[in-house]
Amino acid sequence: MSQSPLLPVDEVIDRLLSGAMLLAEAEPVAVVGCPGRTLAGDVVSAINVPAAANSSMDGYALSTGDTAIEVGVPLPVSDRIAAGHVGQPLQHGTLARIFTGAPIPVGADAVVIQEDTETDADGSVRLLEKPAPGDNVRPVGQDIAAGATLFKTGHRLRPQDAALIASVGVAEVPVYRPLRIAVMSTGDELVEPPMPLAAGQIYNSNHYALIGMIRRLDMEVIDLGLVPDDRMATEAALARGAAQADCIISSGGVSVGEEDHVKAALEKLGRLDLWRIAIKPGKPLAFGDVAGTPFFGLPGNPVSTFVTFNMIAKPWLLKSQGALEVLPQPLYAGADFEAPAGTRREYFRVRLMSNEAGEMKVAAFPNQGSGVMTSVCWANALAEVDIGQAVRRGDRLKVFPLDFGGS
């Protein structure tokens, strides 16, 4: 019996994202704990930042329109203003000593930096250069205006975002709760470290990569453990995951072999939407649900698991947790390797670097096998090569950095 044709990668991603639904409820969280979380409401500033015009440098505040203020003329210092303190209105013909961040006194409109001044023995100050109006002054609302929207619903917060939110006096923001992801590995050949290996067995490495990548997304992991190649055990693990999690992710057991039971169990307990994709590594990939709980069945080879999670499963997970920007953003770099055209879109494990001329280049790991996990550890990016595209040195390739912020 002939198999169904392989589905294009972009079509699969489009179908997944178009059908993705928000799975997480909103909850308040302190700003200190918000990085990595996705906003469930807009963050709007109630104040101007800065709230008052202030000095951007250490120096002397002055009025540029004061006719008594001239270069080289000794001028008295009538006030001293440190950050966090408000000075007196500036007196005619005087300067106010001012420090970075201190409010500009009433009557002043500029700051001369201290390097452009000289101090006489009696404490008077001479200007070596007269500033123009507004020099070295941060105006009210220069950074943020009252009423401005800092971040919109669906934005995935970063540490710098937390700083900006705190700068407008907000202590708590609404975010979507972390998704609960059940993770299972299948296969009689798998053994958990550090148990000794019998003939034909290998250590279960996929489980550790999957758990780590999910936690990098600030999602919770429900560990279903290692499931043997047994129909009843597979069905029991899937049912347990469906009862506890928002999504189930399995590695292995989704190909066409007689010992691959995940596909059959899924069809009994729920439904299967797609499972053969024109991607290399990673052709066998399942998506469906177990009693209504979404399910991803990733291929068993470790590099295939890594690639399909990052390029296909991760965008769906992010959207299901409320994020708006979910697709990885590529760079473009010249190929420093060659490869023949293939019949599936291939993601080469590459190292992104720049040459002496500042041009971005990518070198490929010499062994691109789907079981060679050293290629992923060596690489810092994935280079996308489409169906029928032969790679020649110097070709411009689409490259996705493996920085785990977007991968």
TL;DR of this structure?
With 407 residues, the protein is an alpha/beta fold.
List strands and helices in order, with pairings.
Layout: H1 9-19, E1 26-30, E2 43-44, E3 54-55, E4 59-62, E5 77-81, E6 95-98, E7 110-113, E8 117-119, E9 125-127, E10 137-138, E11 149-151, H2 159-166, E12 172-176, E13 180-186, E14 190-191, E15 202-203, H3 206-216, E16 220-227, H4 231-244, E17 247-251, H5 262-269, E18 270-276, E19 279-280, E20 284-290, E21 293-298, H6 302-320, E22 331-335, E23 345-354, E24 360-364, H7 374-378, E25 381-385, E26 396-401
3D shape: elongated
Structural class: alpha/beta
Give me the Rg, rounded. Answer: 30 Å
Tally of helical segments: 7
Low-pLDDT ranges: none
- Strands of the largest sheet, in order across it? 16-13-17-21-20-18
What fold name stands as the CATH topology of the largest domain? Answer: Molybdenum Cofactor Biosythetic Enzyme, Chain A
Highest CATH level, the class of the largest domain: Alpha Beta
Mean pLDDT: 94
**What is the terminal separation in angstroms?**
38 Å
> What's the architecture of the largest domain in CATH terms?
3-Layer(aba) Sandwich
The CATH homologous superfamily of the largest domain corresponds to MoaB/Mog-like domain
Largest sheet entry: 6 strands, mixed
Helical percent range? 10-25%
Q: Give the beta-strand count.
A: 26
Report the portion of residues in β strands: 25-35%
Q: What count of structural domains?
A: 4
